Amino acid sequence: MDRAPLSLSLPQRLRAAMNEARKRRDQARTLLLSTILADLKNRELELPHPPSDDETAEVLRRGIKRRREAAEQYQAAKRPDLADKELAEVKALEDFLPPAVDPAEIREAVRAAIAAGATDLGKLMAQVMPQFKGRADGKLVNQIAREELAATV
User: Fold this and answer.
1) What are the pLDDT digits (tens) for 83-130?
2) What span, in angstroms and rounded, lies between the C-alpha atoms of 152 and 32?
3) Quick one: pLDDT at residue 2?
4) Where are the alpha helices (DSSP H) in 1-153?
5) Residue 141 and residue 129 in contact, taking contact as beta carbons nearer than 8 Å
């Protein structure tokens, strides 16, 4: 695995990893990283400044989400070979993201928000999601929120 120093910004680490993949003639990884860097360049054109690590992480998450959705469609179409390829790309991209938040920490925040008076899912999600933006999958937060709301009824 090509690991760029963590002192570099996330966009710099992505570029360094792509250059390393090119040197090793790893076509699949080079294509994956160049696609993400192209998405990042498009995002950069929308912004009035170079993308921050958080904005870059958001681009990575969108790429991960697209690949997960594609893997689900390939599974439904009975193409496990293509689904496995997409899931391998997801894993490669996840390596660039900060570690995910522990579900117990999310559950604790959800319980605190319920105790503070959030009684419906919309209000609860509005209170909890900003705490975990960029660090937790929205689906997981939503699932935990639903479970905790059901337990309070």
Assistant:
1) 999 999 999 999 998 887 888 999 999 999 888 888 888 888 888 888
2) 44
3) 47
4) 10-23, 27-46, 53-76, 80-94, 103-115, 121-132, 138-152
5) yes
